[in-house]
């Protein structure tokens, strides 16, 4: 009888300890889930976004998948297609992914960036950054711009948002396009 009482007492103590541990740590899992969901509060598919200034569209992007941060200042995109516009001209772009920081007024796209304008200009780059405060489009990686049988390459560039004025930096080279003489 005494052995059974000791056994029952040990089992009860183990159950009480397990219950105490459960109640002590049960809210930690909720806190971890809340922390992980703070990175993005909303997700969308095939979403259009744009920014306007003085009633005119500056840029417009569509993405296959979009995640918006809880404070709605940071937008991450996948399968990106969009335009930078100025007056009646526009630069059409595609990229694998990107992000928009509304607070900093920047747009960043990367991964197989390709662009073209209606007047025949072509752009190939690893990434592009648009600084909305300075209205400057730039890349910090090698790029290629083709137009009118000419090819411009360099390590990086800065330009207006529709590539009308480009400042190439680092190993800049302007050459005839091969096969276009």
Q: Write down the secondary-structure element order.
A: HEEEEEEEEEEEE
Structural class, from secondary structure content? alpha+beta
Q: Report the strand count.
A: 12
What is the tally of helical segments?
1
User: Describe the biggest sheet?
Assistant: 12 strands, antiparallel
Low-confidence stretches: 28-38
Q: Oligomeric state of the chains? A: single chain
Shape: elongated
Q: Classify the beta-strand content into a percent band.
A: over 45%
Please tell me about this protein's structure.
- By secondary structure, the protein is an alpha+beta fold.
- 20% of the residues lie in helices and 55% in strands.
- The protein contains one helix and twelve strands, in the order αββββββββββββ.
- It has one helix at residues 2-37, and strands spanning 42-53, 56-68, 74-86, 89-101, 106-117, 122-131, 136-139, 143-147, 150-154, 156-159, 166-169, 173-176.
- Strands 1, 2, 3, 4, 5, 6, 7, 8, 9, 10, 11 and 12 form a twelve-stranded antiparallel beta sheet that branches.
- The longest helix is centred in the N-terminal third of the chain and has 36 residues, at 2-37.
- It starts with a helix and ends in a 5-residue tail after the last strand.
In short:
The chain is built from 1 helix and 12 strands.
Produce the secondary structure layout.
Elements: H1 2-37, E1 42-53, E2 56-68, E3 74-86, E4 89-101, E5 106-117, E6 122-131, E7 136-139, E8 143-147, E9 150-154, E10 156-159, E11 166-169, E12 173-176
Antiparallel strand pairs: 1-2, 2-3, 3-4, 4-5, 5-6, 6-7, 6-8, 7-10, 8-9, 9-12, 10-11
């Amino acid at each position: 009888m005494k052995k059974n009482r000791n056994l029952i007492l040990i089992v009860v103590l183990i159950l009480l300890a397990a219950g105490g541990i459960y109640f002590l740590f049960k809210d930690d899992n909720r806190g971890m889930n809340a922390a992980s969901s703070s990175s993005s509060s909303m997700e969308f598919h095939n979403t259009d976004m744009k920014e306007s200034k003085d009633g005119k569209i500056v840029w417009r992007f569509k993405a296959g998948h979009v995640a918006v941060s809880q404070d709605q200042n940071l937008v991450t995109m996948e399968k990106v297609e969009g335009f930078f516009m100025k007056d009646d001209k526009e630069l059409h772009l595609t990229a694998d992914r990107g992000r928009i920081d509304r607070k900093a007024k920047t747009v960043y796209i990367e991964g197989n960036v390709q662009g073209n304008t209606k007047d025949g200009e072509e752009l190939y780059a690893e990434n592009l950054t648009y600084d909305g405060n300075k209205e400057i489009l730039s890349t910090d990686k090698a790029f290629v711009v083709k137009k009118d049988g000419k090819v411009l390459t360099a390590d990086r560039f800065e330009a207006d948002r529709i590539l009308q004025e480009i400042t190439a930096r680092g190993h800049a080279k302007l050459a005839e396009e091969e096969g276009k003489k």
